Amino acid sequence: MQNSSQPHNVIMENRRELRISGVKDIDSFSETKIVLNTIMGELVVRGRDLHVRALEAETGDLSMFGDIKSLCYNSFSSSENMFGKLFR
Predict the structure, then answer these.
(1) Domain residue limits at 23
(2) How confident is the model over 17-51, as pLDDT tens digits?
């Protein structure tokens, strides 16, 4: 997780619209799950009919919509996840 002067905000409206700032990259996406790399760690959005409306790479602002069921942060880095999976 990084400390940054850039803000990280998550604004959800009626579980249908989601605006997130501080997004570095989209790791993966489907209609049921979107995995984002943010300045505060990995964020997984789950739901149905999920669609990314826009990602402004310069500002890190993301806009998406769909039937949003959950938001979950994963604080582990990818290397920690890999070793954790090996030793389970």
Answers:
(1) 10-86
(2) 999 999 999 999 999 999 999 999 999 999 999 99
